[in-house]
Amino acid sequence: MAIFQAKRFRPSSQSQNLASRYRTALAKHPFALFGLPFIATMLLGSFFLTPATALRYERHDRKVHQLTEEEKLGIGKDRRRIDMKEEYYKLAAKDLDNWEQKRVKRLPGEHDGVL
């Protein structure tokens, strides 16, 4: 009986193809041709995306900034002081047992919610 060779038959047209040469080299050196480019892409992507991320946070910081002391003093200038006891007594003085339900007027074209 004849013994067959372990090598596969590849036509000469296929041996010139870049993809087939890469496939055979990948079988011999898988890390160098697959793992190393993958890791390099991840590292380079990290370095290239760092400025984009910094730009994002800089824009956010422009929107949210700390108030100066003058701005803090000017915010609540005309507001009245709230006293919890006073608010409690105002609510207690209201008559909560006698109230009337009133229907809100609908806008034109808006359905009334009843099916």
Automatic annotation (TrEMBL):
TM region(s), chain numbering: 31-55
Keywords for the protein's UniProt record, in alphabetical order: Membrane, Mitochondrion, Mitochondrion inner membrane, Transmembrane, Transmembrane helix
Bilayer topology term: Single-pass membrane protein
InterPro entries: Cyt_c_Oxase_assmbl_COX16 (IPR020164)
Highest taxon of source: Eukaryota
A GO cellular component entry from the record: mitochondrial inner membrane
Pfam family name, one: COX16
Alphabetical GO biological process terms: mitochondrial respiratory chain complex IV assembly
Subcellular localization: Mitochondrion inner membrane
Chief location category: mitochondrion
Protein family according to the UniProt entry: Belongs to the COX16 family.
Biological role stated in the UniProt entry: Required for the assembly of the mitochondrial respiratory chain complex IV (CIV), also known as cytochrome c oxidase. May participate in merging the COX1 and COX2 assembly lines.
Annotated PANTHER family: CYTOCHROME C OXIDASE ASSEMBLY PROTEIN COX16 HOMOLOG, MITOCHONDRIAL, MITOCHONDRIAL OUTER MEMBRANE PROTEIN 25
Name this polypeptide is given: Cytochrome c oxidase assembly protein COX16, mitochondrial
